[in-house]
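Changelog note: in this version the structure field was regenerated for every chain. One regenerated record is shown below for reference.
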Amino acid sequence: MIIRAKREDLIKTKELTPRRQQNSDLNLQELRACKTLLDSKPRRLVFELTNACNLNCVMCGRNSAEFKPTMFKLEWFELFRDIFPDIEEITLMGWGEPTMHPQFEKMLEIMDEAGLRKYFCTNGMLLDKLTPAIFKHKVDVFAISLDGADQQTNDRIRRGADFNKITSSLRNIVKIKKEQNLSYPYMNFVFTAMKSNFRQIPDLVRLTADIGLEELKVVYLTAFSEDMRQESLYYCMDEVREVFDEAARLAEQLGVLLKLPHLSGEDPAGDKVHKDCFTPWRDFFLGSDGYVRSCMSTPDKLFHISKYATFEEMWNSPEYQDIRARINDPEKMPAPCSRCYQSSNANWNQKFSFIQIGNVFAPDWEK
């Protein structure tokens, strides 16, 4: 199966409780009605556990901006406990590597006790140590960043990574999953496509199937620095089409779910600056410095979590109502949104979705 863009719905790994289903249905209704004051809770909390990382990938924005080290406080979890029965999922994802957080396993435990869907994104370097916790706390989904179908390519791009260690850890997790006849965790690769590696996408489809992962998601490189401009695929869409077509044929044969971005010039968003955005309704994003942002791909901060005493005050704050009112209005949306590069919402007909050189793309981190 081939999917071109993830939209409103979150991944389903199990049936929702009636209360969660009711909230999700209401949230979708309010999103589609463009309400700014919501009766529903978000369907997902997204927590950026740290902006630090144990790798130094060649294309990472941290090489083009100052990243003061920040760490999510476990006590912030307590501010959301009252809405745990309503929401579907907590995703641990942001600018840094979440598994580096010293209380990462404790967070998985809290989420599991609440019966929440647990989702995290990782570079895979600590999966060997985390394997017992993944099964103990019933992690539903996790994504692994891999930018090459072989060690030489991946480890050159993802400096500090170890392709063989990562794939070995994944094979072990798949083995345990099969031995115990478990439906979790659902696992997928996320591949950042650029000139020097995109021809390996068909080989990565093969690797995905060989290891036993369910899905491969391809995203375009975002060039944050001049030295990465030449790696952008914006300039070679005819070649990209050929590779995507080959990968799609293989994925169908091997039973791999393949998620591909739209080709530039064929995005149904037309001439909009971005696809209609749903994140200020569906998600609540909390950065590792304690500042709420509308999504992880904007530098704009709405407010610090300490500003409001309850989640309800935060969720329907003047700041949140304002961003809901403006996010899809080309005349009023914040400047970073007008040049969106977020993988699901960007309009790939626009050059700025690929090239962010000279733009402010990351927040001013505060400890």
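Spot check on this record: The chain has a mean pLDDT of 93. The CA atoms of residues 17 and 85 lie 9 Å apart.
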